[in-house]
Amino acid sequence: MKEVTLKIFASLLHWAKEPEVRIPIEGPTALRNLVEHLGIPEDEVAVVIRNGKQVKLDTEVTPGDIVSLFPVIDGG
Length: 76
Description:
Helices cover 16% and strands 39% of the residues.
């Protein structure tokens, strides 16, 4: 099966519930759509790493990609 692996960190687990999620896709898909599918608000995602490189949510992912999602860090 063709899929993308999403690794979810810290407060983003509030929406995703699992630290690693595999989502089947047929071909190139906007990362934004996968985040929406998990119910994670876009404004909560601060850093996105695809296959070791930082990307934006409008980047297309393909089967086999590994994507890490990190939240906005708040504090002082």
